[in-house]
């Protein structure tokens, strides 16, 4: 058990935590192109649906490539947002509203799940002999604020939470499952509705493996917990969850989807992204190297929480809902990542909601030395990062320091830095807020248990906003295919027929389809071939008795390894 006074559980002013969440969530969503790899692929699927027919909506894929992108919900949402808002803010910006919806829904679900767990009797602080201990509501709100700050402080989420990927819908779905399961402890009908909705979202945005793991983890959490859920929660969540699993296949048969496309959809649902039958060595290696930095400061706080609460037998230890429910979902998410063919940073997102809730319960028992370490580490780290961002921006705009400016020119040939008053003012304002937060934290000794998180969450927000204001043109120039697409369009003769794109990656195909009006398809009979692998192109020519005449060779300025080539295909 813990000892706390009411003063230690004063909540953060609502306007501050709302503003911090909104600024973090919206920064970086607008005024940029789809970025290379997952962001471009996700947007490409939405763009294809927006311009496509019923088959495109039923089986999401990239234009000209008959390979399913997986479950349809993210692409349905993105394409719908493009239809509603593209005429006002542009297609790419409208599609990224999908990411904002998923992020804010996940943040809200994490807050409320922690709030309900924090009000439970078994986690309440000890009653003080002279009184003055916090009431249940105040304690729950403080822990919920802490969970949200931990979620915002997670370093790895900064870029990934602002991209149009299916993992954003998965993040939202798992967060809602957590909230619904906790809500079901005192309101079975309502909790069952939310749990079922969360399972449906996961089923409609991920492959079958993750969907079944989430269901299994939830069942294990309910069985293991010492706070049993009622039949009404089980019935409601089961019915809605089954509807979520059945909805997509039902659509296949209602519209009489052609057999070929049904097989494509089934394969995408089973294996998009690709899974293995046993734990992947590549995924294990990726996780062991990258997880610790990605999930900082979430994982150390979660470890402290588990170590403390897991040994208190009077509350049921590991069977207590505030440990059992999120821990089961975390373990399930971890197993999923380990069975991925080759995991990446986007896959790690689904582990953060559960860890954030567990980590929040470390706040009442943190030692002063740990609090000081987290504070000063975040203070120095984010101050140095902010200083570096400002110095490099200054070099881009003014040419001073000369060495830094020369390095930028070497890394990004052709890029011309321009002064933007709006970006400069926003960056200056967020830096001023950061200095105010640092001054507040270092000039006094606040008693609130969330005090060690305010610098970390503010620092992550500072870093991301500075990057998305001062550095946005640079990052966009480095990650977009806009300029190389324009040069490609200039060399293809008007009405010259289709371009075979079977030898380029999905991000490149999605980008070229968006930035050009060329006819792109995976068809070896096209009179043109676009490739970034010369040996594959030559092997294709020999196999099909054709000659290739090189017409164009180019690359993105920031990518020295990629070399795009356009060939004219000439039958021998």
From TrEMBL:
Coiled coil: none
This protein's record includes keyword Cell wall biogenesis/degradation: no
Segments passing through the bilayer: 12-31, 97-118, 138-158, 194-223, 235-255, 291-310, 322-342, 348-366, 373-393, 419-437, 449-472
UniProt name for this protein: Inner membrane transmembrane protein
Keywords: Membrane, Transmembrane, Transmembrane helix
